[in-house]
Write a structure and sequence with these properties.
3 strands, mainly alpha, 60% helix
Length: 285
Amino acid sequence: MSEHDMAEVKLASATVVPEGGSLGGSLVSNAASGAASSATLGTPPGTTPGTTPGAAPAFGANPLAEQVYQQLKSDIFSFRLFPGDRFSESDIAQHYGVSRTPMRDGLFRLQREGYLEVGFRRGWKVLPINFDQLDQLYDLRIVLELASLERLTSGNAPHEAIAPLKAVWCVKTERRESDAIIMFGMDENFHRQLVAATGNGEMLRVHNEVTERIRIVRRLDFLKPHRTSATYDEHATMLHLIERNKLPEASILLRAHITQSKLEVRKITLSMLAAARDQKLPFVS
């Protein structure tokens, strides 16, 4: 098995189930202990799976509903729940070993986020990945981050905000991270911190929302080793340009950097979709 294939297996199986246990048993036991799994696919270190750093869980009063939501989202992101799959609330609740109330909460939350739809007497359906909408979200992300660069190179924001990012990205080759999941989290944090450094809370809020909505494909960006080295080089160059107030050069680099990432993850997503339909989960009709 090639390194690329092993990385795909690692990403697709990142949700941990206790040895000898079922997925439903995992959810119930985690709810009883109050400890949610942190091994969900592509979760940036130190954050709740499927959430933006600093965001409060939507189901703070119901940990089981939150865990059901996270598990469902992990199954959608890893294509265990495949676009077009249909299922009923009762069947999926039985599979996960939970009651229908937390399951329904999780399903309707994913419906609001655009991952599922429900029809009268037709049950639930996993929606196709909308690449046109993702392209628009990437365009919005570019607009937000270009505006951030303009502020950061205008002298209105202190360059001290960039120093922690330089400590991570302006490093020698032997100190660079190579793990795809860790790199994904680091990359999300880099771009989020560029926006946060402007001090504009509303820009950061919108950027966080965009980050969450493109995560289903963006998390695949570092399956290929050349994307890791390119990201380190481009991030380091961008930080040096910001320090020198070189807005035109930094803007050109940022736009190209994000556009290339978008193209890479689209190719990988289509490839994974083509390979993922080997078997269905037992509750899928």
